[in-house]
Amino acid sequence: MENIAVLGSTGSIGTSGLDVIAKFPDRFKICALSANTNVELLRKQAKIYKPEAVCVGEMRRDKGRWGGIRVYEGESGLLEMLENLKIDTVLVGIAGSSALLPILTVLDRVKKMALANKEALVMAGSLIMDKAAKNNVKIMPVDSEHSAIFQCIGSNNRKDLKKIFLTGSGGPLLKVKKSGFKDITVKQAINHPRWKMGKKISVDSATMMNKGLEVIEAAWLFNTEIKNIEILIHPEAVVHSMVEFTDGAVLAQMGACDMRLPIQYALTYPERSASGIKSPDFSKIKSLTFYKPDFERFPCMGLAYDAGKKGGTFPSVLNASNETAVKEFVEGRIRFVDIPKVIGRVLRLHKGVKDPGLLDILEADKWARIKTKEMLRCCR
Ligand SMILES: NC(=O)c1ccc[n+]([C@@H]2O[C@H](COP(=O)([O-])OP(=O)(O)OC[C@H]3O[C@@H](n4cnc5c(N)ncnc54)[C@H](OP(=O)(O)O)[C@@H]3O)[C@@H](O)[C@H]2O)c1
Q1: Distance 251 CA to ligand 1 centre (A)
Q2: What does the alpha-carbon distance between residue 192 and residue 208 come to, in Å, rounded to a whole number?
Q3: Model confidence over 130-171: pLDDT tens digits?
Q4: What distance in angstroms lies between residue 24's CA and the mean position of ligand 1's atoms?
Q5: CATH 2.40.100.10 is right for the domain spanning 2-141
Q6: Inter-axis angle of helices 358-379 and 314-330, nearest 10
Q7: Which sequence spans correspond to the domains of the chain?
């Protein structure tokens, strides 16, 4: 039996992950679950899966109703829980930069990490990849594009990888004209045509920052330069990404838009098992289209390419400024069009640190959050 911890178990990735894990009762034993605010759902999950321990962001009441399960609380509680348990595999479905310290902590404990969170890799890719290599931890990508790239690379030699084509459906605003962007509401922004996801990643898909973050994520996961990664808009969302090798051969991975597929592959790799998920009906798909993204309408992609190429603390600033601006937008304090504007300004002000350590990264993250809020206050 593999002891598995599901971090962010109440979210979109976490709940899909639990669905997958439940199909393999002879293989996985859930030892830990974590959530931030949704204590009610966490309690239900704990009743079903009977982990040894759970962690919540803040326990407001009902401390006593956990039936012998050890309950940890807060950021430090999460790290303590991860240090105290025997964990073989971890699924990281925590959203945002809060995943960074749990990831670095759990990398000292596990053999395998199924990684859905992208923000931590964007901030601190070198620290995460170095620690995983040092501790011999297999990092399995869960993001559908990165799972696709991983599958396409397969047993080919990484040195023969020439180019990555990172596909994206284009998000909910693909057909909206630039002049219409100033009036985009939160409801419109989170209405993704293909994927059902948490709020933050849904807004990122609308601004296309999600693709930008994925470019940096792919560079770290597959040890390649940003310039070798090309975003392609593919509205049918059947091809989840492609890779080109030095000889010109291009391999693509296709499948349904269901996160349970890449989650299952990450957890059962190198084996494949029946998933019960229907593959696309190719006879009904009339055509597969691909085209270049519009960097003018979606400037977040260009900001991410620039920050990724500069490296150092720039990606951390990009991520923190984006997280702050997206929160302000979701809470109704700024307009959709303010998101790329403020991130661009904050990045221009940043004096980067080369080869940053954890403290430099956290400092840059903090600075970017303060600067973003300051600038947004000025614009209001
Ligand atoms: N959803 C997808 O299809 C998808 C696909 C590819 C990659 N990803 C990546 O996977 C990650 C999770 O996305 P999601 O869509 O599943 O997000 P989500 O639905 O918002 O879920 C986020 C999870 O993280 C927990 N959480 C939030 N803030 C936290 C904090 N400060 N400390 C500890 N836990 C915290 C939440 O707890 P509560 O709910 O209890 O507050 C929830 O369990 C993101 O990095 C995203 O980019 C998601």
Answers
A1: 30
A2: 12
A3: 999 999 999 999 999 999 999 999 999 989 999 999 999 999
A4: 23
A5: no
A6: 40
A7: 2-141, 146-310
